[in-house]
Automatic annotation (TrEMBL):
Keywords: Coiled coil, Hydrolase, Protease, Thiol protease, Ubl conjugation pathway. Residues 798-1370 form the USP domain. Residues 114-124 have a biased composition (Gly residues). Residues 968-981 have a biased composition (Basic and acidic residues). Residues 1263-1290 form a coiled coil. This is ubiquitinyl hydrolase 1. It is an enzyme of class 3 (hydrolase). Residues 23-33, 939-949, 988-1001 have a biased composition (Low complexity). Residues 1-124, 900-1040 are annotated as: Disordered. Residues 56-70, 96-110 have a biased composition (Polar residues). Gene3D superfamilies: Cysteine proteinases (3.90.70.10).
Length: 1391
């Protein structure tokens, strides 16, 4: 086993002379296309006049507006102003009147009370990070790196840190006082989040064309200047060619933040617990970039730290507001109608319902688009952006198809680029002729000129139709829409055409720029829009420009190193913007704003630093020093948390054999720590081991945010006292008794009071080493309590001390003790003299009189079983008479219970075997045919069988022969059950490719199944017919074995094998060789009488079986437990049992129905929940944590052989439909690629954020289809679940009146853990017959009284689940839970 890694993780030393790379003028910034030139971009006022593009130069002008748009109305003469981008504060935007942009309905923020009246940030008062008083202590102190530096690393500019919060980052109470806003991001990452960095955003300036009609047209009115200007969606909107859409993007340096949509913000707070930054703090600094902090006189922070608040700003509250046009709202309404059609909210055939939907359903939609807010917590800068691209008029896929067609079929002198430009110019000209030249004539699409410039295909038609044109098939012409501004329809068409005109013009200008080399000989027409790349403008505004944050400092090997991709993002930065200062700032800023996740951020930092070493790159010394410094402050990584848990004993192969999980109780961790500490004191390297355990406690306590564990850690941080030093300090020998030790301690304290603290440390260590309650109580109270006897009620059951990974054996032994008849039989048999039996002689005839487990037993096994029962009776006596709270089973008892006779024989190297001396795995008379699944079978509700393991029998005897004598005492068959012939079940392969198996027992009953010449199995009487050779086993895949867990006796079997072994030995030890009885169905045996019932197996050929001899096979068998496969949530005990009693199997290559019914029921009914499933993807077994509902009573009437046939038929029909329904739910919600709804939602979200990955020709229709499919799938799942509920109710109604075969719950075995091969076991037993509403919980040495609510609770989401249920027949009184000696009876007898 790998040794756990030490908590300290120092970095390899790196020469301090490691220079940090300095960008030179000759160094190329990568990727250059992304970041542009290193020099700031020229402002539009400095650009030369466009040549050949119809563009005129703009003249500089003063502008009081603040925003991110270059969109302006531009006249032809004089040149229009072009706003130069700048960051200004609190200046009003230009006044847009109602006729152009609509009158702003927003109430000024100052008039509404600002932030003073709201507590949106959480925490104290109105601000997000506390009140002004909090600000004085948190920020005014100018706490910076100097307050935390050790003095050997350079300072990084960052403010707002508080010493107490960084020290106690793990403490929820401390975090609540500061109320930080949560994780943030640096400007380079924000730049990528604003819009796809591979796409170019254009600022668009537009002017009305200088065009007029060729002649006067009555009533004609060309678009006004306002209409042209507002053809751009918003002054702060930017065009993206790759989407053919617009991004609304604005930034401000302002003390007034945009008005939030309170409904959306409250929902966000409730969902994620987010908080706004401290607004008072933000007002102190205008901008983190380029400004000085008024508190310190210099820059306060290296850069911005933005926090994301998705969809909280109502676009209609902007100034000017953003509103969708009428035609855009119609598109939104279409999408909504499509969603509602899928959900079935209205009848599509009923027009009235559609009208009602238009009026009422849309009223519940948000009033305006909701925008994302990015706010810097350190200054007054914030940014608002639309989360999705505002779609253009023409779907992108038709534009792309048109361009592709034009390039593949060039018309203008074979020049593809000129053909594309000519086509775009034609679209623009058609719109201009309609809007400015009053040309309302249709366009004949078959004329040579039209076909030469545009062609005629589906894409061209769809482009015209998207702009409102109508195709007249009879005239084969495209007719323009009505654009009369005096009608609503005309105004809507006019607005849409103007938007399309702007977008096509931008496409045209962009195409000319990108393919200028191919257009050198092309004479372009004039256009009336101007575009400018805005990337460097908003980079400068948010602080992400290359001159503000250099690029290219990270070695190329780390730039695209996949293992640390998530680490960069977790710290809120990008690898391209790396510098050691920025990385350090990002880490500190995240820890400052989100202290609860300090461990995660330190993990990210360390992963990046380790990546330098892994790839052989030189890590800056400053960065290494910083990591060392953070470690000295107690920082640790997620890997070190796991190492700490291992140090405390958690883990699969570790001392506790339990996973460290979030729901692990603090008291349990405290106990684990104390045990680990005691072990550490026994170690030769006690001091270092103790420090490791102490550090592990600190790490676990901080990771869990546990004040209780941290207080324990602080109390134990003393002088490094060891047991040897403790005894030496008190000057006593190590074996001194506790009374003398206390006396000496008091004397030493009286003699040397100045050393009292040291002596208390010594006593603490000794108390822990001895685990002495007396010493611990003395240290707490100062008084010697004397000898402490555990306070255990006389009638309280006693616990069992664990011998080492034997918790499930303890549960089993306690279970046996609660069964009155079994307990009395064991106590009576325990008086047998084993020595006399060893000396006695048993003949072969004596041994052949009795069978156990369908085979003969040997003298060796009989002697071994007598020893086991003898030791068990000793334990039972102690459980009755011991005054201690717990007793310890003998080592010999544990070995006999856990190791089978065969394993013992193999371990001793014995190989000589005879018919009467051959030992095999100990099993009783074989149970009902247990249908174990092939290990490659996937879990499914229908395929309810699973491979075996700790929670279900493990397969053995891998290399069994294919045929054997029926009389042989050795039953080494296939590795599932020794006495069964296994056949495949096609039911499992109906849903998976695996197989299920069914067992046909060749003996153990009054009749046996043997194969005739046709391959059918016939029932023959063993008394009258010679036994025949059973048919050969059908070939099947090998069964995967589950790794055994380590154990003190060398090998460990699972719970079922242990139970079988114990019951086999009890049965064997109680054999009476002076009696002739010995038949398999003999109920004189206490084991058979208590645990064994009888079933009837019926194998029926399927309807499609065309063999001439149809077959029905029946046989009766004994069973001791019923297996229930656990594969999915939402099932109860009846569902599980139904899968066992009725199944479709494969027999002799054909499908057959296997029906099982109960003929005779035992007093104790054991139901085994087989939780082991097999993952076909990982090829590993796993434990199913599914909750199986069960109650205090179960009724077995429906499974009886005597049940009403009509009810059985009705029940079978309902069960068949219910299984089909559940199988469909399982396919839709379980497996590798499910749940499909979540996958569809993730795909939709990804493609929305990264449209470049859309398939060729994909557009918004694909995205809407994804959303529709997601919703439709959820509707289908909901309907299936509702139907399954109805069927389940109908099924239970069939058997509602059948209550004769009633069984009451008496015992529940629990397995806690995530692995099927290890974990912790405990056991619940009902207090019968005295107090049936009370239960006992047996957890090794601890026994406590609990309520039935704990036993019957819903275990969904928990790792502690039942794996064996025991029910007692209602008229039976075989369980007497408590059997304790009462001294009062002696007093009464004496009197």
């Amino acid at each position: 086993m790998n040794q756990p890694r030490k908590l300290p993780r120092p970095l390899p030393s790196t020469p301090r002379t490691s220079p940090e790379p300095v960008p030179s003028s000759s160094r190329t910034v990568s990727p250059s296309s992304f970041y542009g030139s290193k020099a700031p971009p020229k402002h539009p006022s400095q650009l030369a006049t466009g040549s050949g593009l119809g563009l005129t130069a703009s003249q500089p002008t003063a502008s009081s507006s603040f925003g991110s748009s270059h969109t302006r109305y531009r006249s032809i003469s004089p040149p229009s102003p072009f706003r130069e981008p700048e960051l200004v504060s609190e200046e009003p935007l230009p006044d847009f009147n109602q006729t152009s942009w609509g009158e702003s309905t927003r109430t000024p923020w100052e008039n509404s009370g600002g932030w003073a009246g709201l507590n949106l940030g959480g925490g104290n008062g109105a601000s997000g990070w506390g009140t002004t008083d909090t600000f004085d202590t948190a920020w005014s102190g100018a706490l910076g790196p100097a307050d935390f530096d050790s003095g050997f690393n350079k300072k990084v500019l960052i403010d707002g840190r508080t010493e107490d919060e960084e020290k106690d980052w793990w403490d929820p109470a401390v975090r609540a006082r500061h109320s930080r806003p949560g994780p943030g991001m640096l400007p380079p990452l924000l730049e990528e989040r604003l819009h796809n960095p591979e796409h170019t955003l254009y600022s668009v300036s537009v002017a009305p064309p200088d065009l007029k009609p060729d002649k006067d047209v009555a009533g004609f009115a060309p678009p006004s200047a306002d209409e042209v200007r507002t053809a751009v969606p918003h002054p702060n909107s930017y065009y993206c060619r790759r989407h053919n859409g617009w991004v609304l993007l604005l930034w401000r340096q302002s003390l007034v933040v945009p008005q939030l949509s309170m409904k959306s913000f409250v929902e966000l707070v409730q969902e994620r617990g987010v908080k706004l930054p401290d607004q008072e703090r933000r007002k102190m600094t205008g901008s983190c970039v380029g400004e000085e902090n008024p508190l310190s006189g210099g820059p306060a922070n290296k850069t911005h730290h933005f926090h994301h608040y998705p969809r909280v700003v109502n676009a209609q509250e902007l100034n000017p507001p953003f509103r969708r046009r009428d035609w855009e709202q119609l598109v939104q309404k279409k999408l909504l109608r499509r969603r509602m059609t899928v959900q079935g909210d209205f009848n599509i055939a009923d027009p009235a319902s559609v009208d009602k939907m238009d009026d009422e359903s849309l009223a519940n939609e948000p009033e305006g688009d909701l925008l994302d807010l990015y706010m810097c917590c350190q200054c007054s800068v914030y940014c608002v952006v639309s989360p999705e691209v505002i779609p253009g008029v023409i779907p992108l896929k038709w534009i792309d198809e048109f361009v592709r067609d034009r390039r593949e079929n060039p018309m203008l002198n074979g020049n593809a680029d000129a053909t594309v430009v000519g086509g775009l110019e034609t679209f623009v000209t058609v719109i201009e002729n309609k809007l400015w030249k009053a040309n309302d004539r249709g366009l004949p699409v078959m004329r040579p000129a039209f076909r030469k410039k545009l062609g005629w295909n589906n894409a061209v038609q769809r482009i015209f139709e998207a702009m409102g044109f109508v195709f007249n098939r009879e005239e084969e012409s495209i007719n323009p829409p009505v654009t009369n501004p005096n009608t609503p329809e005309g105004r809507s068409n006019r607005s849409r055409l103007l938007r399309a005109w702007v977008e096509l013009s931008v496409m045209l200008v962009d195409y000319r720029k990108r393919f200028a080399n191919g257009l050198k000989n092309y004479e372009p027409r004039g256009v009336w829009v101007k575009i400018e790349n805005t990337r460097e403008m908003y980079q400068n505004a948010i602080g992400a420009h290359v001159q503000q944050i250099p690029r290219g400092l990270l070695p190329d090997q780390l730039l695209h190193y996949p293992p640390i991709a998530k680490d960069w993002e977790g710290l809120g930065m990008t690898p391209t913007s790396y510098s050691w200062e920025l990385l350090q700032f990002a880490y500190l800023a995240q820890c400052r704003c989100d202290p609860a996740h300090t461990m995660e951020y330190f993990t990210y930092l360390c992963n990046i630093v380790y990546a330098f070493q892994t790839l052989g790159q030189l890590c800056p010394q400053e960065l290494q020093n910083f990591v060392i410094e953070e470690r000295s402050r107690g920082r640790f990584t997620q890997d070190e948390l796991q190492t700490a848990a291992t140090a405390l004993g958690f883990g699969q192969n570790n001392r506790l054999r339990v996973d460290f999980e979030a729901d692990t109780d603090d008291e349990f961790i405290k106990g684990a720590w104390r045990d680990a500490l005691r072990e550490a004191w026994k170690s030769p390297e006690s001091a270092s081991r103790r420090r490791e355990v102490q550090d592990a406690l600190m790490v676990v306590a901080q990771a869990r945010g546990s004040r209780k564990l941290m207080e324990l850690y602080s109390e134990e941080q003393g002088s490094g006292m060891t047991p040897e030093r403790a005894y030496s300090t008190l000057e006593v020998p190590a074996d001194v008794d506790e009374e003398m030790l206390i006396t000496v301690f008091l004397m030493r304290v009286e003699e040397r009071p100045h050393q009292m603290a040291t002596m208390r440390d010594a006593m603490n260590v000794i108390a822990e080493v001895r685990d002495s309650s007396r010493l611990k109580q003395f240290l707490e109270t100062g008084k010697d309590p004397g000898v402490i006897t555990p306070s255990v009620a006389q009638d309280m059951p006693r616990g069992l001390n664990q011998l080492g990974n034997t918790c499930y054996l303890n549960s089993l032994l306690q279970y046996f003790y609660t069964i009155k008849d079994l307990r009395e039989a064991v106590l009576a048999a325990g008086t047998t003299d084993v020595k006399s039996l060893e000396d006695g002689k048993l003949t072969e005839d004596d041994l052949k009189r009795h069978r156990v487990g369908g085979r003969l037993v040997t003298k060796r096994e009989i002697i071994r079983s007598k020893k086991f029962v003898h030791r068990l009776s000793e334990l039972f006596w102690e459980l009755e008479y011991s005054e201690a709270a717990a007793v310890t089973p003998s080592i010999e008892l544990a070995k006999l219970a856990l190791v089978t006779s065969k394993d013992e024989e193999e371990d001793n190297g014995e190989s000589v075997k005879t018919e009467s001396s051959n030992d095999t795995d100990a099993t009783l008379v074989e149970d009902a045919p247990v249908r174990y699944a092939d290990p490659e079978q996937a879990s499914s509700p229908s395929s309810r069988d699973s491979p075996s393991s700790v929670l279900g029998k493990r397969p053995r005897n891998e290399n069994a022969p294919e045929a054997m004598e029926m009389d042989s005492p050795v039953r080494e068959t296939e590795p599932v059950r020794d006495d069964y012939v296994m056949v495949k079940s096609p039911r499992a392969s109906a849903t998976t490719s695996g197989t299920s198996t069914v067992a046909i027992t060749p003996e153990a009953g009054p009749s046996s199944a043997v194969a005739d010449k046709d391959g059918d199995v016939e029932m023959v009487d063993e008394q009258s017919e010679e036994r025949k050779q059973p048919p050969p086993l059908p070939p099947r895949k090998s069964t995967a074995k589950i790794a055994d867990s380590g154990m003190m006796f060398g090998r460990q079997h699972d719970v079922s094998e242990c139970m079988d072994n114990c019951m086999f030995q009890i049965e064997t030890a109680l054999l009476k060789f002076d009696e002739l009885t010995g038949s398999e169905d003999d109920k004189t045996s206490v084991v058979k009488r208590l645990f064994y019932g009888k079933i009837r197996q019926r194998l029926t050929a399927s309807e499609d079986d065309r063999r001439p001899k149809a077959s029905v096979h029946e046989k009766e068998d004994l069973f001791s437990h019923l297996p229930v496969n656990v594969s999915d949530e939402g099932y109860d005990i009846y569902d599980g049992l139904s899968g066992y009693f009725d199944d479709i199997v494969e027999f002799d290559g054909k499908k057959a129905r296997m029906e099982v019914s109960l003929v005779d029921l035992p007093p104790l009914l054991q139901i085994q929940l087989q939780r082991v499933q097999f993952n076909r993807e990982t090829l590993q077994p796993y434990k199913s944590q599914a909750y199986v509902k069960f109650g205090e009573t179960v009724y077995m009437d429906r499974f009886m052989d005597s049940a009403d046939p009509q009810k059985k038929a009705r029940s079978k029909a309902i069960q068949f439909e219910l299984d089909a329904c559940r199988d469909q739910i399982h396919r839709l919600t379980q497996g590798k690629h499910v749940p499909y709804g979540a996958r569809l939602a993730e795909t939709h979200e990804f493609l929305t954020e990264h449209p470049t990955y859309l398939p060729e020709g994909g557009d918004d229709e694909l995205l809407s289809n994804l959303k529709r499919d997601e919703e439709q799938l959820q509707v289908q799942i909901d309907e299936l679940r509702a139907r399954a509920g109805e069927l389940k109710g109908a099924l239970e109604a069939v058997w509602a009146g059948d209550r004769e075969a009633a069984y009451e719950l008496t015992s529940v075995f629990i397995h806690r853990g995530t692995s099927p091969s290890w974990g912790h076991y405990f056991f619940y037993s009902r207090y019968l017959p005295d107090r049936p509403d009370e239960w006992f919980k047996y957890n090794d040495s601890s026994v406590s009284a609990v309520g039935k609510e704990e036993v019957l609770r819903d275990t969904t989401g928990d790792t502690a689940n039942p794996y064996l249920l025991v029910f007692m027949r209602k008229d039976a009184e075989v369980v007497h839970t408590v059997k304790r000696f009462d001294p009062a009876t002696l007093v009464e007898e004496g009197s």
